[in-house]
Amino acid sequence: MRAVIQRVSEASVSIENKKKVEIGNGLLILLGIENADTQEDVDWLAAKIARLRIFPDDKGVMNLSLQDVGGDAIVVSQFTLHASTKKGNRPSYIHAAGPEVAVPLYEKFVKTLEEQLGKPVGTGEFGAMMDVALVNSGPVTIIIDTRNRI
């Protein structure tokens, strides 16, 4: 499971020119799921993101988590995070999970993150063409891959 986490002052997801979700201060999480991912990956990544200390404290030091600041989150499924560009110029997505694996894990991830944060988490729509808008605060962008956790 691979996540690109962006600290935002605002973010939104629109589908067919209709805003599905928008947040202020918080995180926009782009989530890529691969065939080998499990519930263990879901649990570890959701807890890691909820506790990731990337928000400034009163001294301006990144020392607070999304939980600490009471921020919001949006999770957008993005299979292209597992693109392989080793050969040629057209990316291969052979490691990205198909919908039969990805959808249940995506839904479990969102639910687990909601439990971690104690509040609803916004989402895109799996498989839809989405317009994702954000103002990256900092800028702060963190990439986490559950394969590299040990």
Which descriptor suits the 3D outline? globular
CATH H-level homologous superfamily name: D-tyrosyl-tRNA(Tyr) deacylase
Q: What structural class do helix, strand and pairing data support?
A: alpha/beta
Q: How many strands appear in the DSSP assignment?
A: 8
Major pleated sheet: 6 strands, mixed
CATH architecture: 3-Layer(bba) Sandwich
Number of domains: 1
Beta fraction: 35-45%
In CATH, the topology is named D-tyrosyl-trna(Tyr) Deacylase, Chain: A
Overall mean pLDDT stands at 96
Given as residue ranges, the uncertain stretches (5+ residues, pLDDT < 50) are none
Helices and strands, in N-to-C order? Answer: EEEHEEHEHEE
Output the radius of gyration.
15 Å
Helix content: 10-25%
The tally of helices reads 3
CATH class: Alpha Beta
Report, as a whole number of angstroms, the end-to-end distance: 14 Å
Brief descriptors of the model:
150 residues, 3 helices, D-tyrosyl-trna(Tyr) Deacylase, Chain: A, two-stranded antiparallel sheet, alpha/beta, globular
Sequence-ordered SSE layout with sheet pairings:
Elements (H helix, E strand, L loop, with lengths): L1 E14 L2 E6 L2 E7 L6 H13 L3 E2 L5 E3 L1 H4 L2 E6 L21 H19 L4 E2 L6 E16 L5
Parallel strand pairs: 3-6, 6-7
Antiparallel strand pairs: 1-2, 1-3, 1-8, 4-5
Helix pairs in contact: 1-3
Question: Describe it for me?
Answer:
- The protein is globular and about 45 Å long.
- It has one domain: D-tyrosyl-trna(Tyr) Deacylase, Chain: A (3-Layer(bba) Sandwich).
- Strands 1, 2, 3, 6, 7 and 8 form a 6-stranded mixed beta sheet that branches. It has a two-stranded antiparallel sheet with strand order 4-5.
- The protein has 3 helices and 8 strands; from the N terminus they run E-E-E-H-E-E-H-E-H-E-E.
- It has 150 residues and is an alpha/beta fold.
- Helices cover 24% and strands 37% of the residues.
